[in-house]
Amino acid sequence: MIDAQKVMSTIYRVGQCFGAQYVIAVLRGMHNQKITERGHESLSVFGIGKDKSKEHWQSVIRQLIHLGFIQQVLSDFNHATLQLTESAKPVLKGEIELELALPRISAISQLTRAPQHRTANYDKDLFARLRFLRKQIADKENIPPYIVFNDATLQEMAQYLPCSNAEMLQINGVGQIKLDRFGQAFLHLIREHKAILAQAEKQPA
Q1: Start and end of every HRDC domain (predicted)?
Q2: 176-192 confidence digits (pLDDT tens)
Q3: Got the DSSP string for 176-196?
């Protein structure tokens, strides 16, 4: 069973009513109170992804959302749950082969494991501009800034400079819902910043 099938099967087995973190916990065979209470440790998919990291499965889920095989749906409690789309059925049945990009997690994992090096790796000027944009959006939407994106997510944007939807979905803290709601403004700012940097490099010393 390929990784995409493992994710889709787990989403289906838990009833398509849980978010990414719960699905990943089941995939990796994590024993916690919520999983035990629901009896999900007895599912056939429990632990089938324990050989891969949490970051790996986050990347797989992001790609499947971007490709339209999974959708995020807000529950009655305003929680994002993962559900399969009609396009997922042929993949689940093995009728079509699906090749996903190699998850770009090594550098991201390094940031997670070594936060003391973060400040040396990201563009601080861009980070400041991203924070200002976040405040503008938060004020307009009348929500706390962290609901838009937290500082760690903005720092990662300022390091990797994502310029497309697919690249933005590789950033920790960016899911399809937030990408649709807030992402385009941040992508526009990052593209603009990269263009300014490129122009500056062309200027004679």
Answers
A1: 120-200
A2: 888 999 999 999 999 99
A3: HHHIIIIIHHHHHHHHHHHHH
